[in-house]
User: Fold these one by one.
Assistant:
Number 1:
Amino acid sequence: MSTATCSVPQASDQQTWMEKINGPYHKQALYLYTAIVLAHWCEHLAQAIQIYVLGWPIPESRGVLGLWFPWMIKSELLHYGYALVMLVAFWILRKGFVGQSYRWWMLAFWIQFWHHIEHALLQGQAIFRHNLFDSPVPVSILQLLIPRVELHLFYNTVVFIPMVIAMFYHMFPLPGEAAHQGCSCAWQPRTAPATAASA
C-alpha cells in the first residue's frame, strides 16, 4: 500500500513574485498577514474593554498604542491605510487558495472592499475638511445607523470570520483540493476514501 505525500514547493528563479508568494512563500505570507490582523484586533478589543468594562469616555479610549500615540486613533489616514493594506493583501494572497477556501477568502475580500470604501469616505472628508450630512465629525454611510466604535468592531468581525474559515479549509483542504494547492500550507490534507485497486 502506498501513501501520497505532500512535497514542499520550492521557489525557482523562473517564478514571478506573485507565484512565489502564492506558492512556496504562501505560508510565511499568511503568518505575517495573520499577525497584522490579530494585532489590529487586539487594538479594537482593548478599546472596547476601555469603553465597556473600564467605563472610559470614548475620546480617551484609544486602544493600547493610542495611549502612547494619541494622534494615531484620530488619524483617518492611518485607519484608511490599514483598510487598504488589508484589501491589497487579500487580493495578492488569493491565488494560493483553491476550492472552498478560495470562496471564503473572496467573501472576506469583498466585505473588506466595502469596509475600505467606508474608510475612503472618512479619509476624503478629513482631506477636504467637509463632513457628509453636516456631521461635526467625518462619518461613513453605516455610521449613520451604528456608532463608530461598534461599527468597526462589526466590520472587523464580519471580515475576520470568513477569513478564518478560508484559512481552515486552506490548512485542512477538502478531498481533491490539496492536490491543486501550490503551497505547503496544508497541515493534514484530508484524503478521499480509498477505492479498491483493480487486480
Number 2:
Amino acid sequence: MTRHADGRSGVGRRVLGQAVPALGVLAAEPLYLLWDTAVVGRLGALDLAGLAVGALVLATVSTQLTFLSYGTTARAAQRFGAGDPAGAVREGVAATWIALGVGLALLALVQLLCDPVAAAVADGSDIAAAAAGWLRVAACGIPLILVTMAGNGWLRGVQRPRAPVAFVIAGLSLSALLCPALTHGLWGAPRLGLVGSAWANLAGQCVSGVAFLVALVRSRPDGVGRRAFLAPRWSLMAAQLRLGRDLIVRSLSFQVCFVSAGAVAARVGAEAVGAHQIAMQVWNFLSLLLDSLAIAAQTLVGAALGAGRPDAARSIGVRVTGWSAGVAVVVAVALAAGAGVVPRVFTAAPGVLSALAVPWWFLVGMVPVAGVVFALDGVLLGAADAAYLRTTTLAAALVGFLPLIWLSYGLGWGLTGIWSGLALFVVLRFCAVLTRFRGTAWQGSAIPANRTL
C-alpha cells in the first residue's frame, strides 16, 4: 500500500486520477437536471413549476445523507491504506445496508406526507398536485440514490474512481433518453407528461443503483462466503452513523445559511433575488470544480493515515491545497476579467445586471479563499475529523453568517449585507480549517492502522 500513501512520488498523477472522475460524477447530475428541466419546460409553466417543487423536496430529503459518500470514502480509504482492502469493501457493505434501511424509511415517509409537503412548498393547489404526482414516482428511487452515494464512497476509498463515473453516466444516459420519450410520447412511447420525467429518473436510478450493488457483490474477497461477507455488521454501521451525525449537522449548517440568504434576497426585490440567484449558480458550479480536488485529498489522505504515515498525509494536504488555491486564483482572475461580459450570458435585464455587480465582486474575492477551504475540508474529512468540521461550520454559521444576514434584512443593507455574511462564513471556516491543519490533532481521528474488523 506504500505507493498509495507516498506524499512525494506521483502525487500529481494520483490527484488527477481521483479528481477528474470525481468531477465527472459531480457534474453529471446537474447537467442531467438542466436537460430534464428543458424537456419538461416544453409542457408548460404548470408542469415546470411542479417539477421544480417536486425536485426540491426530493433533493432536500436525499442530500442530507451525503455522509454515505464522504464518510464512507474516509473510512474505506483508511482501511485500504492500512493494507486491508477486504475491510475497506466491508465499509461499503455497511454503508449500503444503511442506505437501504434509511432509504426505505424515507420512501415510506415521503409517500405518506407527499401531498401536505407539496402543498406547503408550492404556491397554488394546481402546482402542488403536479408536484405530488411527480414526487410519488420519483421518490421510489430514494433507496437507490442512497446506494449510489454509498457506492461512490467505498469505490473511491479503494482507489477505483472510474467505476462510479461509468455507473452514474449509464443511469443518467438512460434517463436522458427516456425523459423526452415518456414526457412527450416520442418514438412510440406513451405520452405521460410530467410523470414521464419521474419514471425516467427512476429508471436511471435503478441502473446506477444496481450497478453499484453488483460491484459490491463482485468485490467479495476470495475464501469468504457471500452470506458472511454481505451480512450487516452493526459495529461498523454504528461507527458510520456517528460520523454521519456530524456530517448531517454540518450539511444543515450550509443549508440554513444559503436558504436564509435566498429568503432575505427575495425580500429585497425581484432584481436583487435574480442577481443573487445567478451569483449562487456560478458559486455552485465553481464548488463542483473545487470539490473534485477535495475528494482527491480525502481519498489520498485517508489512505496515508490508514498506512500509519501522517507525514505523507500532511504532504499530500499541502500539495493539494496549493493546487486548489492556484486553480481558484485563476478562476477569480477570469471572473474579474469577464465581469462586464459573463453576467450577460445569464440575463439582459439592466436592473438585474446592475444588482449583480455587488455579488459578482464578492465572488471574485471569495473564490481564492474557498480554494483553500474546500481542499482542507477534504483533508480533514479524509482523516474522519468530522466532529471538528461540524462544530466549526456550525459556529461560523451561528456567530458569523446568520447575525449578519438578518441584520442586513433589518437595516436594509441589501445584497451587500447578504454577501458580506456569506464571505464572513467562508473566512471563518478558512481560519478554522487552517488552524486545525497546522496542528496534529486531526491525524488522531483516523482509524488505527492495526485495528481489525
Number 3:
Amino acid sequence: MLTIFGKSHSRGGFCDGTSRRDFLTVGGTLLGGCLSLPSLLAAEAQSGIKSSHKAVINIYLPGGPPHIDMWDLKPDAPVEVRGEFKPIKTKVPGIEICELFPRIAAMMDKFAIIRSLVGSSGDHDAYQCMTGRPRTPANNGYWPSLGAWVSKLRGPADPSVPAHVTLMYRTGEQRWGYPGDGGFLGQAHAPFRLVGGKDNGMKSDSLVLQGVTPDRLSDRVSLMKGFDDIDRKIDATGVMNGMDAFNRQALDILTSSRLKDALDLSKEKPETLARYGVDDPAFERDGAPRMVRNFCVARRLVEAGARVVTMNFTRWDWHGGDGMNFVQARKDFPLLDRAVTSLVEDIYDRGLDKDVSVIVWGEFGRTPRINKNASRDHWPQLSCALMAGGGMKTGQVIGESNRLGEYATKRPVTHPEIFATLYRNLGIDLNPVREFDANGRPQYPVEPEVLPVRELV
C-alpha cells in the first residue's frame, strides 16, 4: 500500500488520460507525460490560477483553551470566576490580555482577538476548526476541509509541494489529530501528513513507499518496482480509483529538494530557532507534543509553496483536580506566546503579512465559574480566536462577552464567517464557486449568505 502526503483526483485529461493537475504535480515529463513542464505552466496560467501565493496557517489547540484566562479576562468578576491571572496592558490602548502573554501584548497591533466566537458543537473534535462545520453523522468524512477546498480551487503553488499539508500529530484522542480530508472533492485534496503519532515515534507514514525508503528514491528502478507492488483493489471510497495520480505526485514530491528543505530546520539561523524555544517531543497524555518549532516549520512550508498548513499543539483539556487549569496554563501559555509571536514576527520580517493568515483557536471555551477541582469545564457557548496577517485589520478586539464571560453580548462571530474571511484572504472569490457531490447536489465552501468578518477586511 502506498501512503504519501497528498491524494489523487479526477478531472478532464490530457493525451494519456492524466488530468491537468496531476501532470502539474509530477512536473510534466518526469513519468513520460505528453506535455513539457513549460507547456503545463502555460496551461495553468490559461486556466485562471493566480500567480499570487496566499496561504493560511491554522493552529489548533486540542481540548478547549480557556478563553476567560487568555484573551477575555474578567478582573472585576467574583473570585470564583476571574481566576488566578491578572490582565496586562498591550501595545494597543484599551486592549488587555493575560499576563502570561507578554510578547503578544507587545505586538498587539499585529493581532486581532475575536472574543465572541459562538456556535461550537461542544465536541472534543478538530472537525469544526478544519471545516467550519460541526461534525454530524451525515457529513462525517463527507465535508471537505479548508485545505481541500483551497487545493481544489487553486492547485499547488509549486509542483513539488502539496497545496494542503498538515503538521497535526496523531493523538490518543483521535479527533484531536484530525487534519481534515478531501471529502466529496476527492482524496487528491486531503492533506499531506508530515508527522505521525506516539506509536511510530512521530514519523509520518506518509513518507514511506512500500519497500522504498526516502534514501532509495534516487534509484528510480526500485521506486517503480515499489509502485508495481501496490495492491490495486477496488475501493468504494474512491481512494484506489485515484491511486495512479497519487503515485505520480509521490514521485515528484519525494524526489524534490524543496519540500525536504522546508522541513530541514538546520537551514534556519540558530538565533531564529532560539526565538521559538525548544521542542518537547513528549506527547501530553492523549494530546499532541509541545513542538514549538513546528510554528517555524509551518512558515517554511508556506514559503516553499504550501497554501494551507494545519497543526496541533499540546493538550488544553484541563478540568482535572488540583487546579490543573492554572497549573497547565502557567506551563503552556508562555510556550504559545513565544511560538506565535515568533511566527508572526517572521511573517512580517519576510514581507508575508499581506499574504499569510494565521489563526489560533480550539474547539470551545471554558466555564467562567471555576469548578470544585479549581479548574474549568467545557463551555461551548463561547470561545475566542486569535488572528494575524492576511492583510487583515489587526490591533483590535472583535465582539464582547457579558461581565462573567458566559455568552456574547456584542457582535457574535461564527465559524463559517471566519472561514469566509480566510477564503477572502486567500484571494478566492466564493461567489462563482460551486462543486457537486457524489449525489449531484451543489455544494459551497460556505453558504452563499455567509460573509467575511467585516471588521477584519
